[in-house]
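Section 5: illustrative case.
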């Protein structure tokens, strides 16, 4: 069996050798029809567009994307061509929750706010949004949830309308998949009308997909003080991001909210497990993230410990200083571990 793998997928080399006869690594943006023609399976990230242009005439039977999102896979073409595919739902949900937790602590300190006096609106309450809700509850915040698909299945009792969130929230954070059309369309969900409906000059956080927020409308809202701050990890037209928005963002990072080593290891494991299941191979491998350089943290309180584990201002400063290095900063991201990797001593 031959597998082509995005060369930025970590912790995979030793494991994949146990299940494949031939493995080829390539940058995600450099996958070509010639490269994949005689491959049985692909393991990709969002930079590889798996569509007719890439796949037609190949012997590819299975695609695993080591990401939650799958809008880079032409699912309709794959269905027509008999190509199975899988994503990695929930793989980095704890990593995104860590990013939100640390970002809120930085914002609270810089803006002299008390989180337990604020209301947060969470738009999209799947794997990630649910963990973010737990973070917010631990901070003592009032939490409003918005999730149309879940509301239809579970009833309206637990959920709030977008209108209510726009009117009552001090912080609004987006955790939806990108749907460009249809009943649950999320493309430009936050547009000029949305920002015009805001009542409390909230902080806007986006760690979902850049296209969920209309960039020009967000910039206008920042400039006119309809919102107080923006914390942005995902951007329209990546890696050619809007420099003006980056400069004005309270925190601006290169699509790395889900990039903890734990989340990456989860995604790699899920991708290999899916390939083994599809091709009916017995997988005999272990995938573990490396230990942090300093696994013992000394802190006065939990907030201080959280920011020792991960402080997003470091990523933000790197991107703001060299925005042209968006892809490099994302691709060569330093080791970040989640709380379970540490021993905290108060």
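Designed sequence:
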């Amino acid at each position: 069996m031959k597998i082509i793998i995005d060369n930025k997928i970590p912790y995979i080399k030793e494991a994949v050798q146990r299940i494949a006869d031939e493995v080829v690594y390539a940058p995600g943006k450099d996958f070509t029809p010639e490269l994949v023609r005689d491959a049985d399976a692909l393991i990709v990230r969002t930079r590889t567009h798996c569509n007719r242009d890439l796949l037609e005439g190949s012997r590819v039977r299975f695609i695993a994307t080591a990401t939650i999102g799958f809008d880079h896979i032409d699912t309709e073409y794959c269905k027509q061509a008999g190509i199975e595919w899988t994503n990695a739902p929930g793989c980095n949900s704890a990593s995104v929750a860590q990013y939100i937790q640390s970002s809120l602590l930085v914002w609270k300190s810089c803006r002299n706010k008390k989180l337990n006096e604020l209301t947060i609106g969470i738009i999209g309450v799947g794997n990630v949004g649910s963990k973010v809700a737990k973070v917010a509850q631990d901070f003592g915040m009032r939490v409003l949830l918005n999730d149309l698909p879940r509301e239809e299945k579970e009833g309206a009792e637990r959920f709030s309308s977008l209108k209510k969130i726009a009117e009552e929230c001090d912080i609004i954070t987006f955790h939806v998949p990108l749907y460009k059309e249809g009943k649950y369309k999320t493309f430009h969900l936050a547009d000029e009308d949305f920002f015009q409906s805001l009542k409390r000059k909230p902080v806007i956080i986006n760690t979902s997909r850049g296209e969920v927020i209309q960039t020009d409308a967000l910039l206008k809202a920042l400039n006119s003080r309809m919102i107080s701050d923006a914390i942005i990890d995902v951007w329209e037209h990546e890696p050619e991001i809007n420099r003006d928005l980056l400069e004005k963002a309270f925190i601006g990072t290169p699509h790395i909210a889900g990039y903890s080593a734990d989340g990456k290891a989860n995604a790699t494991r899920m991708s290999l497990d899916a390939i083994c299941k599809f091709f009916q191979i017995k997988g005999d491998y272990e995938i573990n993230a490396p230990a942090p350089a300093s696994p013992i943290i000394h802190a006065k309180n939990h907030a201080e410990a959280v920011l020792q584990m991960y402080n997003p201002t470091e990523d933000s400063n790197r991107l703001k200083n060299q925005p042209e290095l968006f892809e490099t900063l994302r691709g060569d991201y330093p080791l970040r571990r989640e709380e379970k990797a540490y021993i905290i001593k108060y």
